[in-house]
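Input record, target 12 of the design panel.
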């Protein structure tokens, strides 16, 4: 449930306030607020970031972004018709950033508790 709340909050904040930083700030805040281990918080953050950025990437790719994703894939040497690889890379990057932020939040909370 917490993962779903984080993913929805990330998506809403990124669409309304137009900043990629929400993928890090939301899991950081949840890592600070919840009393779970650092690794569990990192896993939750990773799932939330991955699902929100992968979902947004798929939406934009399927509605209007095929040309841009294809050109970006060609620029990275993947071939022109491999835009879906860029969508997957976007989701993985969002998951990585969110995971590190949630880990940092939980670690800060644990350090302040001592």
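The sequence produced for target 12 reads:
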């Amino acid at each position: 449930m917490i993962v779903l709340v984080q993913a929805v909050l990330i998506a809403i904040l990124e669409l309304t306030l137009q900043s990629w930083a929400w993928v890090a700030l939301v899991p950081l805040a949840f890592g600070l607020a919840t009393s779970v281990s650092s690794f569990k918080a990192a896993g939750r953050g990773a799932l939330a970031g991955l699902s929100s950025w992968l979902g947004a990437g798929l939406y934009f790719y399927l509605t209007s972004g095929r040309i841009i994703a294809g050109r970006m894939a060609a620029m990275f040497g993947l071939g022109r018709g491999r835009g879906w690889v860029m969508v997957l890379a976007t989701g993985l990057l969002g998951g990585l950033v969110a995971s590190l932020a949630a880990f940092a939040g939980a670690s800060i909370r644990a350090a302040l508790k001592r």
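The chain has a mean pLDDT of 92.
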